[in-house]
């Protein structure tokens, strides 16, 4: 059995060897690991004012780009308009052509495979000047149909109609008496229109200027005659009164004259 002194010496030798081994391990780890850099702490003694901080911030940070919001422009819905087509005027462009050019709307038109609608008489005007003086001009408006021609019929014509082209809106007829009925029919390849009230009109001539002048002459002559008669009556009465006063004055100046009788 070993003595206590030898055991103590062996323990001390073991402790020394362990310390040496631990030291070598630490040195080896320090040589192989990366150096540790400690953070540097800066102590600012003068921070400055808030305005300086704002200026520095806006100098270092540019303002963000402005984003333009898209503006929605409302698109106005324009309703189609009616074509500028007057059915009562002559020498106009067809409404179908205006539709292709401008996109306007044409009134409903019946097809060429059916009789046209009835036209409308606009006026019956007497001709007072020129070579056609004494005749009557018939004016009408076209129907909403395909028309190739028009026929004008009036009372007393014994069924003999005056024919005009499809583009015409007026025509001349002979002299008419007051109250004569005039009608206009539309015609196409299928037939003619059914006559309506608006397609006929009675001739009512206006009073001519010659008649008005004659009436004024007669009226003026009658008025002048009445003035002469009234003036003559007034003068006659005035003369009678004057004569009566003179007779009264002459009787009072004569001594033999008495209101009670003869002296």
From TrEMBL:
The chain crosses the membrane at residues 213-236. It comes from the Eukaryota. InterPro entries: FN3_sf (IPR036116). Keywords: Membrane, Signal, Transmembrane, Transmembrane helix. Residues 244-263 are annotated as: Disordered. This is Leucine-rich repeat neuronal protein 4-like. Residues 1-29 form the signal peptide. SUPFAM superfamilies: Fibronectin type III. It comes from Seriola lalandi dorsalis.
